């Protein structure tokens, strides 16, 4: 075995020991998860008002093959973060999104605003633990343009987009004003 290959072998064998020693020495003030603190940028939440709206809109069984819309609590979320050494979660709406019925524009706008208000409040209550990606009431373009400004005023860190909105896909030219506004606002 050459000295170069022995050096690489030594590095490969010592690297896990170095990581383990670091993990043992480190003070985990956020729980007993893995040694490396994490930021979760894809953290869906399902507050009770949203769960009830999803059920009332007929999304049962739950979206994405779930048996039912999941239960979620702030306490359980914070506990999960602590147990897994997640320092910060960026919260967003899960599927099916906030526009549950394309025939009910008012309900879609109301639920979008309620969800964004809820996540903004969590961010205000726990600024070191939570950020949020706001929802938009798509496929309604004019109302989405209004919600961009409102959500940014609430402190949104960005925006979440579903894969499509009742057949309105991301490449559709109808979305140009939304993308333009997001760019204009630096979102």
In brief:
Helix 4 (105-125) links the parallel strand 2 (86-93) and strand 3.
Describe the overall structure.
The chain is globular, with a radius of gyration of 21 Å. It contains 6 helices and 6 strands. By secondary structure, it is an alpha/beta fold. The strands form 2 sheets. A 4-stranded parallel sheet has the order 1-2-3-4.
Set down the secondary structure blueprint.
Layout: H1 3-25, E1 38-45, H2 48-56, H3 74-83, E2 86-93, H4 105-125, E3 130-134, H5 141-154, E4 158-159, E5 164-165, E6 168-169, H6 176-184
Parallel strand pairs: 1-2, 2-3, 3-4
Antiparallel strand pairs: 5-6
Helix pairs in contact: 4-5, 5-6
Structural class: alpha/beta
Task: Enumerate how many helices there are, as a single number.
Answer: 6
How would you sum up the major sheet? 4 strands, parallel
In what order do the strands lie side by side in the largest sheet?
1-2-3-4
- Helix content class: 40-55%
Tell me the total number of β-strands.
6
**Percent range for β-strand residues:** 5-15%
Task: Give the termini distance in whole angstroms.
Answer: 55 Å
Basic shape: globular
Spans of at least 5 consecutive residues with low confidence: 1-26
Instruction: Output the radius of gyration.
Output: 21 Å
The succession of helices and strands, N to C, reads HEHHEHEHEEEH
List its traits.
46% helix, 6 helices, 14% strand, single chain, disordered N terminus, two-stranded antiparallel sheet, 187 residues, four-stranded parallel β-sheet, globular, alpha/beta
